[in-house]
Amino acid sequence: MGRKPCCAKEGLNRGAWTAMEDDILVSYINDHGEGKWGSLPKRAGLNRCGKSCRLRWLNYLRPGIKRGNISNDEEELIVRLHGLLGNRWGVVEVWEIHVLQATKKNFQDCFKEGLLKKDV
């Protein structure tokens, strides 16, 4: 027993997104907004599943995503907030708008390791 699949996978494009697919997705979301990801691919004319479209938008195409490392100021702010709030990372999400989820997770892991080494 497992989870129900997000969609029927037969006949869908899998693998790397093309620049044309990215353009179609961005154009559609700019015109119609986010939401109803399950029906978006069909309405936009994409041969992808809704989950794939949502993840592509949120992690790569959404305006305002900052790529790369966090700045020293952002790191200091996070350290100060962690001192005040502890390990409640849901509250300490001041950088989520700018950094991908994977980068945020890597920072949390490194931060926790650093605290363990310092015996905090």
UniProtKB/TrEMBL annotation:
The entry's keywords: DNA-binding, Nucleus, Repeat, Transcription, Transcription regulation
Pfam families referenced in this protein's UniProt entry, alphabetically: Myb_DNA-binding
Name listed for the protein in its UniProt record: Uncharacterized protein
Keyword Transferase among UniProt keywords: no
Gene3D superfamilies xrefs: Homeodomain-like
PANTHER family associated with the record: TRANSCRIPTION FACTOR MYB8-RELATED-RELATED, TRANSCRIPTION REPRESSOR MYB6-LIKE
Organism: Triticum turgidum subsp. durum
GO molecular function, one term: DNA binding
Compartments (UniProt record): Nucleus
Sequence ranges assigned to domain HTH myb-type in this UniProt record: 9-65
Domain Myb-like: 9-61
GO CC, any one term: nucleus
